[in-house]
Structures are given as structure tokens and as C-alpha cells.
Design brief:
Structural class: alpha/beta
Strand order of the largest sheet: 9-8-7-6-5-4-3-10
Order of helices and strands: EEEHEHEHEHEHEHEHHHHEHHH
Helix content: 40-55%
Radius of gyration: 20 Å
Bound molecules: NADP nicotinamide-adenine-dinucleotide phosphate
Distance between the termini: 44 Å
Number of strands: 10
Number of helices: 13
Largest sheet: 8 strands, parallel
Mean pLDDT: 97
């Protein structure tokens, strides 16, 4: 396993981060522990969970498993979505951030989170309050670093600027959605991450399983079972890209799951990729991406099977002008 710096945090994390979202639902406790044991044994030291996953069950499973391994693991959780009903149990208010983290710590049986992600932008709360709450937790030693997930570029930049203005702990990493079929992140977010030295830990890199090609063969999975995911991946263009990609992978003799993960991992702005699975067999397959290094030519060929998202302005980066000649 390769280890890479997590932005400017000083932490070194495995190039794969284990996602736990299926634990306590699609994967029962026994399967979840098998996946965690396997991941830990092959050197994965970066684990990702969230306050709301399976109403808190996921954090409990991770907490019961972790034990003495805690000191070796970079443990990330998230705050925003509720794990139980309650008018103030959601969002990025100071109250919800403090209460959610306290509860996550109890479930995870740990005194601190290495990383706390703000899981979603909250348009009803001033980001100043949210960052103050995270800073308080950091001052109390309950959280070490702050990350951001699912913010747009201006929202990330606003959080960075506010943290600077108030001398709060800076944002060190972001967790955006990114795959061959969802490439919005390339437009503004990846250039921003590069400019601001943010680590990038993408999720949904298999398009929630779509890019494995199994739905083309009539097999079942999350996209049949989960309405939110069904809707997220319902655009017919995604199926068209998947068809072209799976055909390409099969012609070249690759597992589509491994190739899709390698494509995201090959982006130089990506730090560590999130892998999630419902069975150990799925995980053992997709983890083979750590041994697949794509050449620039392969990376370009695969990129061309998809669409290039339009630039945010009609002007290109300086290097492009230089290459072309002014
Ligand atoms: N920040 C956020 O908002 C956010 C959102 C989502 C996830 N995450 C994090 O990212 C992690 C990974 O996300 P994800 O699970 O959505 O990503 P993904 O890698 O796009 O999808 C993983 C799913 O693909 C299917 N799969 C995986 N390997 C396979 C294989 N070899 N063959 C066939 N199917 C396979 C499984 O689903 P089925 O068996 O159901 O098909 C598995 O649960 C999560 O665990 C979580 O920690 C974060």
C-alpha cells in the first residue's frame, strides 16, 4: 500500500480510504468486520464514516471493531444529516455540530476524530457559526482536522476565507463525488484544491456500482434498491457512457470496476480514493486498482469515452495559451 500526505496536515494516509456506508445495512456486522480486517491487514489506515450512516449503526460497528487499532487509523466522520428525528438534529448549527460529534465519539468509542467533514452546505446557517463550532471541538481535542464534503467551489472558498479571517483551523481536505460519469468536480473544485493545497478524497468513484457494468447484465444492486441513488444515476447519458466504458475495459482485458477506480486514482489532484463494498468479494476485486497504473494515453482514451464538462468561463488556463502560442 502506498501512503500519501493528506494535504498540508502532516498526516500520511493510504491511497485508498475504506468507506463504511454499507456497514449495518447491505453488509451486516460480520461482513463489515471481515472487510475492515482485510483492509487493515493490507495496510489501509484511512477509514471514512458519517454520523447518519444507517442511523448510527455504522459508527457503532466501526467503534466495536476498532479497539487497539485506533492509534494506527486516521478516522473520519461527518456532520450534517440526522441519525434520529428532532427539529434541531440536522444541519451545521453550533448545537447540531457539537451534539452530533459527541454522539459519534460515543458510538465510535474514541476520544477524538482525526477528521470531521461538514457533510453538506447549510444555507440556513452562517458558516461562521459552523466553523466556530468545529474550532471549539478542535480546541477541546475532540477533532484534529476539518474537511468539507459536497460543497460547491464558492462554498469551499468561503469556508477557507472565513477560517482564515477568524484564525480557525484551516480546511485540509475535501470529499467530492467524482467518477467517469460525474465529472463536475473537474471544472472548479479540482483546480481550487490544487491552488489551496487541499487533499481530495472522492466518493462514488464507481458511480455507486454502475461502472462495474453489472446493471447492463441485469444484475442487482444499490441502483435497484435505493430511490435516491436511482434518481442520482437516472440520466440516460450515464448508461451510454457506462456501455462504452465497459466495452473498452472488456476489450482490453480489465475488470471495469478496477479500471473505473484506477481512472479516478490517476488524476494527480486526487489524494486517496474512497472504496465501498457490500461484500468482501466486491472489495477484493476493486482493491486491485492499487496495482494498476494507467499510462497517460490510457487515461486520455478512457476520458474520451465520457464527456468533458464545460469550463466555468470561456477562457482557458494560461498554459493552454502558451502551448498554442498567443
Ligand atoms: N460524502 C458523501 O456525501 C458520501 C456519499 C456517498 C458515499 N460516501 C463515502 O464513500 C464510500 C464509497 O462510496 P460509494 O459506496 O457510494 O462508492 P462506489 O464505489 O461508487 O460504489 C460502491 C458500490 O458499488 C458496488 N460494488 C463495489 N465493488 C463492486 C464489485 N467489485 N462488483 C460489483 N459491484 C461492486 C457495491 O454496491 P451494490 O452491491 O449495491 O451494487 C458498492 O456498495 C462510502 O462507503 C462512504 O464512506 C460519501
Amino acid at each position: 500500500m502506498n501512503y500519501v500526505p493528506l494535504g498540508k496536515s502532516g498526516l500520511k494516509v493510504s491511497e485508498v480510504c475504506l468507506g463504511t456506508m454499507t456497514f449495518g445495512n447491505e453488509a451486516d456486522k460480520e461482513v463489515s468486520c471481515k472487510i475492515m480486517n482485510y483492509a487493515y491487514d493490507i495496510g489501509i489506515n484511512f477509514f471514512d464514516t458519517a454520523h447518519n450512516y444507517n442511523k448510527g449503526e455504522t459508527e457503532k460497528i466501526v467503534g466495536e471493531w476498532i479497539g487497539k487499532k485506533r492509534k494506527d487509523i486516521i478516522l473520519a466522520s461527518k456532520v450534517f444529516f440526522p441519525s434520529q428525528q428532532g427539529i434541531n438534529n440536522e444541519g451545521l448549527s453550533k448545537k447540531n455540530i457539537i451534539q452530533s460529534v459527541e454522539e459519534s465519539l460515543r458510538r465510535l468509542k474514541t476520544e477524538y476524530l482525526d477528521i470531521l467533514y461538514l457533510h453538506h452546505w447549510d444555507e440556513y446557517t452562517s458558516i461562521e457559526y459552523s466553523l466556530e463550532a468545529v474550532h471549539t471541538l478542535i480546541m477541546q481535542g475532540k477533532v484534529l482536522y476539518m474537511g468539507i464534503s459536497n460543497f460547491s467551489a464558492w462554498q469551499i472558498m468561503k469556508a477557507i476565507a472565513v477560517a482564515r479571517e477568524y484564525h480557525y483551523t484551516p480546511v485540509v481536505c475535501i470529499q467530492p463525488m467524482y467518477s467517469l460519469i460525474k465529472r463536475q468536480v473537474e471544472v472548479e473544485i479540482l483546480p481550487l484544491a490544487k491552488q489551496e493545497n487541499l487533499a481530495v478524497v472522492p466518493y462514488n468513484i464507481l458511480g455507486a456500482g454502475m461502472l462495474t457494468g453489472k446493471y447492463l447484465k441485469g444484475e442487482k444492486g444499490r441502483l435497484n434498491e435505493n430511490k435516491m441513488y436511482q434518481q442520482r444515476y437516472s440520466n440516460p447519458m450515464y448508461e451510454e457512457i457506462t456501455r462504452k466504458f465497459v466495452q473498452y475495459a472488456e476489450e482490453k482485458g480489465y475488470s471495469p470496476a478496477v479500471l473505473a477506480a484506477s481512472w479516478v486514482k490517476s488524476n494527480p489532484t486526487v489524494t486517496s480514493i474512497l472504496l465501498g463494498a457490500r461484500t468482501l468479494e466486491q472489495f477484493k476485486e476493486v482493491i486491485q486498482c492499487v496495482d494498476l497504473k494507467l499510462s497517460m494515453e490510457q487515461w486520455k482514451e478512457i476520458s474520451e469515452l465520457s464527456y468533458q464538462p464545460p469550463l466555468p468561463t470561456d477562457r482557458e488556463p494560461l498554459d493552454v495559451y502558451r502551448l498554442r502560442g498567443w
